[in-house]
Amino acid sequence: MSVLGDDARRFTWRARRRRRILIWVAAVVAALVAFVATAVYSPIMSVREIVVTGVERVDKAQLDASLADLHGQPLALVTNDDVESRLQSYVLVQSYSIRVEPPSRLVVTIVERSPIGTVQTPTGYDVMDAAGVVLWTQSEPAVDIPTLDLGGQGVGSEAFASAAAVSLALPVACRSGVATVTAKSIDDVRLTMRSGAEVVWGSAEDSDRKAQVLAALVTATSEQSISSYDVSSPETPVTR
């Protein structure tokens, strides 16, 4: 037997072996693709339940209706863009996140905008969040959030930024007891409580600490007649 013949047979054997390996790999890949495609597009893995959480002010029934056409879609193919296109008309929705729970549940978690004050306009009172987004308009001042007195300055002013920062820092229970937040300048913010007491706040700096102190003072003096609170220096507050 010639050396040349042996080399030819070895070359042919290697070629056949490579072909078998390539065919095996292709078969495995094809089977994997078929399995994934079957899993993704199977009715078992389609959206059959949509759970919306985090909703307080937004009409949940309307949200459910807006998302309803996602039922039957392949669960793995539902994207943020799909949900965003259905929620973008809801002003009260600040942000959201989605989570898929196989085999068929889509969870949409909503973060709502927080109303922190109203601004009087010729047509009523615009209820706003801290970014100046108008959430809705009503004919009367709100009974659970303060009116922002900006001294004639607009929503894009430093006065609004200061008033909004102060209102946002207040705990919800304390905020509902504030009738007016007046911002004459960025360093001169004052509150008028619904009880009639005045609050000297100072600048919007350290508002979280000032809010904690004010809430504690209001609670501690609930049975006293207080005309004013001064939390402009939160470590040394004054009540009168």
Topology:
Blueprint: H1 3-41, E1 49-53, H2 60-67, H3 80-87, E2 93-101, E3 105-112, E4 117-121, E5 124-128, E6 134-138, E7 147-149, H4 158-169, H5 172-175, E8 178-185, E9 188-193, E10 198-202, H6 207-220, E11 228-230, E12 238-239
Description:
The structure is a single chain. The longest helix is centred in the first third of the chain and has 39 residues, at 3-41. The chain has helices at 3-41, 60-67, 80-87, 158-169, 172-175, 207-220; strands at residues 49-53, 93-101, 105-112, 117-121, 124-128, 134-138, 147-149, 178-185, 188-193, 198-202, 228-230, 238-239. The mean pLDDT is 89. It is built from 6 helices and 12 strands. It is elongated and about 105 Å long. It starts with a helix and ends with a strand. With 240 residues, the protein is an alpha/beta fold. The chain has 3 domains: 1-41; 46-112, membrane protein fhac (Ubiquitin-like (UB roll)); 117-239, 3-Layer(aba) Sandwich (Rossmann fold). 35% of the residues lie in helices and 27% in strands. Strands 7-8-9-10-11-12 form a 6-stranded mixed sheet, covered by helices on one side.
